[in-house]
Amino acid sequence: RKPRILFNHSQIFQLELRFKHQRYLTANDRRELSDQLNLTQNQIKIWFQNRRYKSKRQEINQSLASYYQHNKQLPTSNISYWNNDQWFYLTPTPNLYPLMMITQTET
């Protein structure tokens, strides 16, 4: 297994900036960005995949938090749902209200 690569602040800033404007990169965009940031194309690809997943989790958390805050109630049990061929489980966390913990199951 390869060691984990740590990105420096400048690389993260540039990646986040690009992600804000373009969530999916073409092969040419990935090549250009990898040359610019001195990273491999695979590192760029994986970073964008991970960032899209993180963004999706945040959007789900915000939607659920808004819903439960509006209805003035916390869920009393775990919630599960199917999305994009994956099961997601949401666990109530009263100490972090209105946030929810999200975990993805292995398929």
* Beta-strand content bin: 15-25%
Classification by helices and strands? alpha+beta
Largest sheet: 3 strands, antiparallel
Number of strands: 3
Radius of gyration: 17 Å
Query: Which percent range fits the helix content?
Result: 40-55%
Elements, N to C (H/E)? HHHEEE
Spans of at least 5 consecutive residues with low confidence: 94-105
Number of helices: 3
What characteristic shape results from the CA principal axes?
A: elongated
Task: Give the N-terminus to C-terminus distance in angstroms.
Answer: 22 Å
Average pLDDT level: 77
Give me the side-by-side strand order of the main sheet. 1-2-3
Q: Strands, helices and their partners?
A:
Layout: H1 9-21, H2 27-37, H3 41-70, E1 79-83, E2 86-92, E3 100-104
Antiparallel strand pairs: 1-2, 2-3
Summarize the structure in short.
This protein is α+β, with helices and mostly antiparallel strands. 50% of the residues lie in helices and 16% in strands.
Molecular structure report:
With 107 residues, this protein is an alpha+beta fold. The chain is 50% helix and 16% strand. It has three helices and three strands; from the N terminus they run αααβββ. A three-stranded antiparallel beta sheet has the order 1-2-3, with helices on one face. A hairpin with a 2-residue loop joins strand 1 (79-83) and strand 2. The two termini are 22 Å apart.
Features:
disordered C terminus; 50% helix; single chain; elongated; 3 helices; 3-stranded antiparallel beta sheet; alpha+beta; 3 strands; 107 residues
